[in-house]
Amino acid sequence: MEVTLQNEQRSNPLEGAPDPFPILGEEAPGKAQDARGALDTDSHSDFPSLVSSTPAARLPPKSAWGADSGPRIKANVRSQPMASDSFTLSAIVLPTTKDGKPVSLGEVMKQVMSKFKVKIEASANQKARQTTFHMKAESEKDLERAKRHLLSFLSPVVTLTVLAPVSTIGFVIGPRGATLKQIRDQFGVKVDVPRKETLPSDGMSHETSSGQASPSVDLDAGEEPTLPVTIIGPQPLALEARDMITSIVSARSSRVTQRVKDIPSHILPFVTVLRSHFLQIAQGGDIQLTLNADREVVASGDREAVIRVVEAIKATVQSYKTALSSVRLSLPKRQHRLLAGKPQEDIFMKSKCSVIVPDAEDPSEEIAVYGSPEDLPSGFATVMEMANSQYIHVFPLPGPIALSRQLLTYITRINYSETLNARHPGASVFIPSAATATQVSVLNVDIVGEKSVVDAVVRQMSELLGKLIGATKEVPIDWLSHEVIKVKNAEKLERFHEVDNVQVFFPPESAQQSSVLLVYDPFSPRASPSPVEKEKHLDEVHQALLKMANEVADIKTEVVPVEKRWHKALIGKDGNILDSIVGEDGTLLVKFGVEAGNPSTEDVIWLRGIRPDVDSAVLKICRIVEDAKEDAIASSYFTEFEIDKEFVGRVVGMQGVNINKLREQFSVRVDVFDEVEDKDKELSKKKKSATQKAKLKITGRKENVDEAKKRILVQVEKLADETTETLKIPSQYHASLIGQSGKYVVRLEDKYDVKINFPRQSGDGGEGRRELRPDEVVIRGGKKGVVLAKNELLEALDFEKEMNNTLKFLVPGRAIARILGRGGATISEIKDETGAQIDIERSAEDKTADAYVTARGTKDAINAARTAILTIVEEMPEEASEIFHIEQKYHRSIIGPGGQGLKDLIVRCGGPSDHKLQVGLVKFPRQGDISDEVRLRGEPGIVNKLKDELDKKVSVLRDRVVVAVEIPAAQHRNIIGRGGQHLSELQTRYDVQIQLPGSRGYGQVGEPSNAGDVEGADPGDIVKVSGSRLACDAAISAMKSHLKGPVIDGPTAVVSVPLMYHDAALQQGALFRTLRSLGVQLEQSVQRSRSTFPAQPPEPVNFNARIDTEGAPEADWQVKPNYQCVEEGSSEWTLRATDVASLERAQNEIQVAIQQAKDKTHVGFLTLPDSSVFPRLVGTKGSNITRLRNETGTDITIGRENNTIVIVGSKSAIEAAKETILSQVMASRVGRR
Q: Rounded to whole angstroms, how far apart are CA atoms 205 and 216?
């Protein structure tokens, strides 16, 4: 019987392969069994063919007078069967003994009854040729075991095969063979899973070891190769084992992947557009459809849905083969660019016709259009419309053809077409392929797009090619030496560009071209336009390359035949042996197997390098291979021996760690075999051996094999002496016995060579052992070591019981600080005096809340610690608490900056000055809390004083007013004083807060009560004073009296300044500073109401236009006459000076400024694409912009919120300033590149 199972998953065939050295002495982890859906042999639902016809008898109720209630005399009552079952067999095959004599049915039944202590009755129906068996046992488990044993004797042995996809083999085997072992043990059958080596590389059918051929696997059709899983055993049990394997495989192979390949190009669009139709055919099944680049549709998902969809796709393709017609037309090759790729999709969506365009390398100019006869005219028209939809420019590369190919190589290697496409959106640049370049005499670059964009690309291409004329050169160097030169002279090749500005381009090795291209880099800022300079640097690099080529001129390539199995020996661990063959300089190239270029064989090694290096490497390879062959011969020695099966798991180790260690240390192979008893041994009357054996086979060098065997036998001997002791230790003592980081238990393990396991700890074989109870501790090891470790552990337990008494009590939160003492001195003293360990559990949120104190140690120690702590608590003074309400708007004023106001308040009331001791005395609501409750807690006297002070403070705050006073901004500095000293004295003397414009609290102090009095004043002159009314009036009077400064009493003069020249004459405040330096005071009768020139350009910025010279950076330049929209009239400036000379100089400065303002007839707006160069234009502390103003005689203002520079001056002056700025911008950008 064969069951074919397939899986769509194409995973690694090695995944899930059985471990060649499974752990036979341990059960698989429970989690792994659950994940694989392991069957319960006691479950009737898992075995429908063997369902019991008689319900299992229930356990009789326990008597109140039974053994549990106290009598020690056991009643002589015979136990009654508690489970029964009946089943019928239609054919019975009786077993035979070794001499061929048949065994009777009675003997078989007797043997089963004696082995499993069950009752079996049989009744035969001669007409129906059936035998019914009735079985009874004390438990369901014994009943099932006996039934399977009986079936194994009476049923014919059959061989069943399940074809499982390769990706599911790992799930059948399970982790470390757990699932496979469970199936064998549960059903008593043999299950043979072929090794991964039996899978054919071509996916075709092959012969198995049993002589049966597995069905062919069509990998091209998307199906996964399968392996036959063979089941041998009694028929009923073999069928159940097969069903279990089938369920595992089905759970992992319910999904499949199939492909529809080689769909004709002209039919593919008609198929892809029907995607939604194909998904409907899936009838709700989970399926995914994807289209590969090689005209292949991949369907993945539920098996039935995939099959239906694939059949529908195939039928659709076949129908279109006969339904479509075609028309052919000839178009110039350059227009093919407009019909390939996405345009093909657009043509199909518009005309329902597909278009086939020949490849770019194909010289044919014929286009084919496919569609239904009624759609072909529309398709033809759409193709012609698309072919003429864009402008195409054919750009020929300058010749001769040798130069054209050099230029093509360069722009190809630097991906210049992508650069052009990115810089000019809307343009597509197509360069000839390498294959085309060797077949034509003229190389053309096709540029497609709007004409304006194409023209811009042509200009940029022309500019580059102009720089490349005379900047390229080819050096003839044998292509065999290219890789050697690159490896040996890597640093020198990089320095060519740094020193000579020359790039070196080696052709790809697959091209086998014996020429190297040199290019004088046109994009480098160091590039010289001089042809002489280009030729000079190219010649220098040319000579250097020829010198490098001469040094490696004697290049040799050799292919050494070496079988693939020896390649690993040549590579070595981490490639160390290969490194020694290649050498330190790395100039020798080595490739193994298929990488050598011959796909027909892997038994070769390819070498290329300087002849002496190659010859030396070949000798090393031959010597290493010979040594490896000798080692293989010497390592063919093996030995076999048996050990008790119960020790196999410990010998192998968790996940084979012990065996792997032996393999790596001695370079041996270790195989473990499980000896399985056959049916003849079951029937034998000889006494069964008390222990089962497992066979080990070690292969390798004799001395290494003997040493590995010796170590295994020593370990087995040690395991044979191993015993296990379980101690009952309460869990509260575990942490103390284990110690910090396990140091105590590790010391015991090392001292007595044992393993001690506490609950929730894993040791050797931790997965296989049962989970420990909370009060269990297991000691495993040699008998003597276990006894000694047990005694020492129990002694430590007695000590911990004496020392681990615990006492927990509550103390007030206010006393914790006193209990701890400064720096923990008090609590440390109590610990030292009493010998107890003391922990205090404080609330992280409320430091004043009551806290629990836990004392650990001897009874005397913890009682003494409790007495000492409570004594401190009793000595604490009486505590009072108060709660009263303060509006939230006053909280910040009371607390003060950084809490300083509240700290000073506590100290004034007799409270502690230490911040830590102040905590909890006054508690305000947290920020964001809407409560206005303030809590006081502490000594009654301090609490009462705090309450009184807070009442006074709040009363003052409630009477607080805000008064505004107008003080000229120029006099604010006099109010503040040096270092703010005068302002601080005013606030302290009058108990007020003075806020000047621009201060942090100016906006938070609130609106002044006399806002109407200062309504027309300049906001920069308004000073706010907050406090009581009397205090504010007194502070204001003091400030005003302090402002009475000296007034200059000297000659005066009046100068009339037109408002239109006001801004220009001030020279951005420079005129005011000049007048102050002369000791002259200035008063203006009228202030201008708006600026005399605009800050923004009058017209929108246009960056597409170039200005002036070619190559200048993109910018926008607009010029406008000055003083167009200005105020009429003039302002009278009154000058007061200390002497006549100063007054005359001041008048002269003003007249000069007015004249310069008159000369500033134009305003220029220079707008750049970005402001990244503005910092460089300004310079360090404005040095550069000041220099520009002085040199050009203009006012230059660099925008802070935009990219515009405003230049004011005469027309010629602003033009000169503009040119200077643009030259600096150009230099800055070139420097960044």
A: 4
Closest CA to 306 of 225, 224, 368: 224
What secondary structure letter does DSSP report for 102? B
What kind and span of H or E run contains 558?
strand 555-561
Per-residue tokens: 617: 């490497």
Answer yes or no: are the C-beta atoms of 1019 and 966 closer than 8 Å.
no
**Mean pLDDT along residues 130-145:** 83
Q: Residue 932 is inside which H or E element, if any?
A: none
Q: What would the DSSP string read from start to end of 365-388?
A: -EEEEEE-TTTHHHHHHHHHHHHT
Contact between 793 and 778 (Cβ < 8 Å): no
CB atoms near residue 569 (< 10 Å): 17
Q: Is the pTM of this model over 0.85?
A: no
Q: Which residue has the tokens 């004709």?
A: 264
Q: How far apart are CA 298 and CA 272, in angstroms?
A: 12
Q: Coil, strand, or helix at residue 290?
A: strand
Burial 882-907 (b: 16+ CB within 10 A, else e): beeebeeebeeebbeeeeeebbebbe
Whether the CB-CB separation of 477 and 515 falls below 8 Å is answered with yes
Q: Which residues contact 944 (CB under 8 A, 6 or more apart)?
A: 880
Query: 219 to each of 6, 226, 313, how far by Cα in Å?
Result: 12, 11, 19
Number of H helices, E strands in the chain: 44, 44
pLDDT at 810 over 50: yes
SS3 461: helix
E strands of 870-941, at which residues? Answer: 880-885, 922-923, 933-938
Q: In the chain, what are the helix, strand and coil shares in percent, each to the nearest 5? A: 45, 20, 35
The 3-state DSSP class for residue 180 equals helix
Distance CA 661, CA 676 (A): 27
Report CA-CA distances (Å) from 1091 to 453, 873, 1020, 1208: 43, 77, 20, 13
Q: What is the SS3 assignment for 58?
A: coil
CB 1095 within 8 A of CB 1188: no
**Residue-by-residue DSSP string for 181-228:** HHHHHHHT-EEE---GGGS-TT----B-TTSPBPPP--GGGTPPPEEE
Domains and CATH numbers, the chain: 83-155 (3.30.310), 254-323 (3.30.1370.10), 325-389 (3.30.1370.10), 391-469 (3.30.1370), 556-635 (3.30.1370.10), 642-674+692-721 (3.30.1370.10), 729-760+772-804 (3.30.1370.10), 880-947 (3.30.1370.10), 967-1042 (3.30.1370), 1052-1091+1115-1230 (3.30.1370.10)
At 131, list the tokens: 């035998």
The half-sphere exposure of 120 on its side-chain side, counting CA atoms within 13 A, is 28
Pick the closest to residue 405 from 441, 379, 369, 361 (CA basis): 441
Residue 823's identity, in one-letter code, is G
- Segment among 396-405, 568-577, 868-877, 923-932 with least mean pLDDT: 568-577
Strands 555-561 and 805-811: unpaired
* Greatest CA separation for the chain: 152
DSSP state of 397: P
Q: Tens of pLDDT along 1027-1075? A: 888 888 888 888 887 764 544 567 888 888 887 877 777 776 677 777 7
How far apart are the C-alpha atoms of 656 and 25, rounded to whole Å? 12
Structure-block tokens of residue 1144: 């005359």
Cβ atoms of residues 203 and 219 within 8 Å? yes
Instruction: Tell me if 1093 sits within 8 A of 1048, measured CB to CB.
Output: no
Q: Which residues pair with 298 in a beta bridge?
A: 259, 290
What span, in angstroms and rounded, lies between the C-alpha atoms of 945 and 936? Answer: 11
Structure tokens at 555: 């290049």
- 3-class SS letters over 84-134: EEEEEECCCCCCECCCCCECCHHHHHHHHHHHHCCEEEEEEECCCCEEEEE
Other beta carbons within 10 Å of 1218: 23
